[in-house]
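hey team, just a heads up i'm posting the complex here instead of the shared drive bc the drive is being weird again. everything in one block, sequence lines first with there labels, then the predicted structure for the whole assembly after. its two chains so it's a bit long, scroll down
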Amino acid sequence: MSDADILGQSLFNIIQFTIWGILSGGIYALVALGIVIINKSSGVFNFAHGWLMFIGGLFFWQVFQNGASDQVTAGLSLATAFLVIGAVMSMGIGATAVRPESSSTKQGRSEWQIRLEKIGRKWISTLTSRRFLIALAPAIIAAIVMAVLVNQEDSKILRGALAGIVGSILIGMFVERFTIRPLLGQPLLTAILMTLAVGFIIQGSTQLIWGADERPIPVFVEASEKKPISVPTGIDANGNTIYTVIGYDILPSRALPDYEVDTTSALGEPLRFPRNLTWGFGIAIATFVAFVWLFQYTSIGLAMRATAENQVLAESVGLRVRLILAIVWGTVAVMAGIAGVIQGTGGSGLSALVIPALALRVFPAVLLGGMDSVTGALVGGLIVGVVEQLSILFISTTAAQEFAPFILLITVLYFKPTGLFGQKRIDRV
Amino acid sequence: MRPSGIYDVNYIQDQSLVRTRIDLFWVGFFLLLLIAIPLLSSQGGLGFSFVPLRLLSILTTGGIYLISVTGLNILLGYNGQISLGQAAFMMVGAYTSALLVRDSGLSIVFALPIAAVVSGILGVIFGLSALRVKGFYLAMATLGAQFMIPWAFTSYDAEKISRPFKSIGFIHDFFRDLDFGGSEMIVPNASILGEEFTTTLDKYYVVLLLVIISWITARNLLRSRVGRAWISIRDNDLAAEQLGINVFRYKVMAFFVCAMYAGIAGSLKAHIDGNITKDAYNIEFSIRLLAMLVIGGAGFALGPIFGVGFFLFMDRYIVHWLRDLFEKRIVEVLTFINPANVPGALPPLLLGLLLALFLIYQPRGIAYRWAILQAAWRLRPFTKV
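-- predicted structure starts here --
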């Protein structure tokens, strides 16, 4: 091994840390994608993304951890949430369609639609019964599934995921509706400050409800054993001591062993793949691909891209820009929630100190890839992950978290401020 | 705001700091008030004790914030750039000045300007990267500064850094003897001509003097050619460029001045507090300073004063009142709230809510509202607000 030392580190270590970097870079790519999409469509640098991750993770944790204890509340609130989302989604389907009216012809519209339009509620007239049912069907199915799942111990992850997705969508839409939309037409600076304010609001309210403790999400651990504590309470007819169980001693659960690839002959040691990072990478990349598919190949994705390109033009061809923005924020909040949960399965758990700071570390990735490039988000995320892990190896952990990504950021700003894949912006007077 | 019937007939009048006698009266009145307040406290030497010492220390803290926020006002309010690293530059000023006073035995008269210039130069190093391009890249660069600078101070390892310079004696010794004192550094009291400032009263006057100096400097910068260039860049950078203004140079200059003000505030904070706590200069503090400016009114001369005053009032009174309300009443209604979480959760929640509400309903801040009130008073009885 000593023949292959690079800067005092063995070749094995460098390969091992690079692999870990790529694995954690997958999560960064997912976070970066969220920031890029918000920046493309709303034109805002979203500094609250980390807090969206955190609160999405907390929704997951809440139902994952103790769903059965409060079934009725959980079921009811989820069903309500699904109904709301169903309504918004049905309007979302309407949002991609060209507006039905040209005021001369009133064909194909029912009485109540025309009446609604007369009182100036045009947007609600897109909520036709067919669209509403189409959107409601999955919502109802999900609510039923939820009601079944809430009782069962071995479906914890599924029910947590459902709750996390629903909660994230609601939070994302809420944030868009009440903080970003009132600022349409205001300078960019105001919007940046607003995302900072949103971060503070989420920080305060999560701390108010969940406290400041870390919340571990024990997925990749052995099932915690319960060891009964019993005391002798008497002697039965045969002369045997009777033991009564007065409680359970829960043994600390141990993390499941890492996956290993046997490379002993080549590198001297087997390469290790920690479970949470491996699965996290897989889920993150799968989510990434799914959302890219959504943006490239569906009609709502087309509408989103049109909105991102030019809001005024999109509106003038009949797209409902504000509704599309709400859907974009909901989608991005789900992405953030997924990233938050993945991060929460790691060693530090869901921590208000770790996760928002992680999202700020992703800004170098976004800038490196280009503020408006989806490919850039993937490449940038992976590069930042590798840089971070290698600086853990070569310098220290704090350097990896507070120094290396940001020196990368400054370097990018000095040499290629548009990023690797970003568009060059041309200002016209 | 000009009273009716008084017109500017030349540029000297147009640019003057104090336009009318009434303005002069108010400026003099507040100045005298600020000078007289501590004389009525128990340390004033006149035998009065109307003014509690606590008020003096609150005002002192407020003065330090005011200097920092004035710097931000120049950058954000008059040049339209945004900085998320003001706390980090304050930290640079604090350490520079503390090291100069502690290790070199320099008086604060020299240490303070040096600290200001050092943090200004460091600011420019970060700012140069972002200011070449249009858009809000400065927010990114200063975000980098906000993480890198505290990291550098926290994890400074004298042995490791000095080793490569072994052959060059004085650099090696310099790096070896540098000591940032772990997580908390004790800072000696400030002194001028061998006289130490130890009492609350002394500290108050030192800060008051610097607030006045930095205030006048800022006003003078803003009514000169430089200030007009900054404002034109804020309003339309393309048009400013067409007028022959070197946009890049003036943006860098604005950021340099902003970081310098942060340096002055940091240096004062170190000497007044008597220590430098590393955790205090985090990104939350930076955003807090920004929030003070936005709530007070960015781009108004009175904005920083209103903002800092509002925050001091909020921190000392409203937060406590809300805390009582939460712990006694609201917890009974919303049972999922644990009373133990309330003290930690309220400040960020309140800050976020206030900032959001001001951005939506009053994006130009309290100072703008004040200007409207003044106009209404001037136009009475034909007022229509």
